[in-house]
Amino acid sequence: MTKLRQLYYCEICGNVVEIANEGQPSLVCCGEPMNLLEAKTEDSSTEKHVPYVEETANGVVVKIGQNESHPMTEKHHIKFIEVLTKDKVYRAELKPGNEPKAEFPVKKEDIVTAREWCNIHGLWKS
Ligand SMILES: [Fe+2]
């Protein structure tokens, strides 16, 4: 079975799919099984990927990363940032040239997971 909110990636075409309802044990894209994205939680290099959540007056801002910003070039950038609460999924879609951050109208204590997907380095969460 797939699990709610899992993200799957197609190595051939780059499709990323999020599970909104649990179903079949595997997803197929371009004639091949899609790969389940496993989120990493720790940066081993100087490049920052782990989402950093900061409270604001209206909710939170999620930055990639805390002190140093992730690149946002055409070739290498953050595609989306998501905030997951118990019963909601918020997603901000980013483009090259944007700042690697997004604001969400969510209380920090309600966040179960904050995650982001880098087009080169994959899925990261905090
Ligand atoms: Fe990256």
List its traits:
four-stranded antiparallel sheet, Rubrerythrin, domain 2, 2 domains, three-stranded antiparallel sheet, 12 strands, 126 residues, Immunoglobulin-like, binds fe (ii) ion
Number of strands: 12
The biggest sheet, with number of strands, parallel, antiparallel or mixed sense and barrel status, is: 4 strands, antiparallel
* Unreliably modeled segments: none
Strand order of the largest sheet: 9-8-11-12
Indicate the mean pLDDT.
94
Ligands, ions, cofactors: fe (ii) ion
Looking at the structure, the CATH topology of the largest domain is: Immunoglobulin-like
Q: How much beta, percentage-wise? A: 35-45%
Note the overall shape: globular
Tell me the number of helical segments per DSSP (H or I, 4 or more residues long): 0
Number of domains: 2
Structural class call reads mainly beta
DSSP helix fraction = under 10%
Order of helices and strands: EEEEEEEEEEEE
CATH class of the largest domain: Mainly Beta
End-to-end distance, in Å?
25 Å
In the CATH hierarchy, the architecture of the largest domain is: Sandwich
Radius of gyration: 15 Å
CATH superfamily of the largest domain: SOR catalytic domain
Description:
The chain is mainly beta and 126 residues long. It has no helices and 12 strands. It has 2 domains: 30 residues, Rubrerythrin, domain 2 (Single Sheet), CATH 2.20.28; 74 residues, Sandwich (Immunoglobulin-like), CATH 2.60.40.730. The strands form 4 sheets. A 4-stranded antiparallel β-sheet has the order 9-8-11-12, with no helix packed on it. Strands 2-1-5 form a 3-stranded antiparallel β-sheet, with no helix packed on it. It has a 3-stranded antiparallel β-sheet with strand order 6-7-10, with no helix packed on it. Strand 11 and strand 12 form a beta hairpin. The mean pLDDT is 94. Bound molecules: fe (ii) ion. The site of fe (ii) ion has 7 residues, from loops.
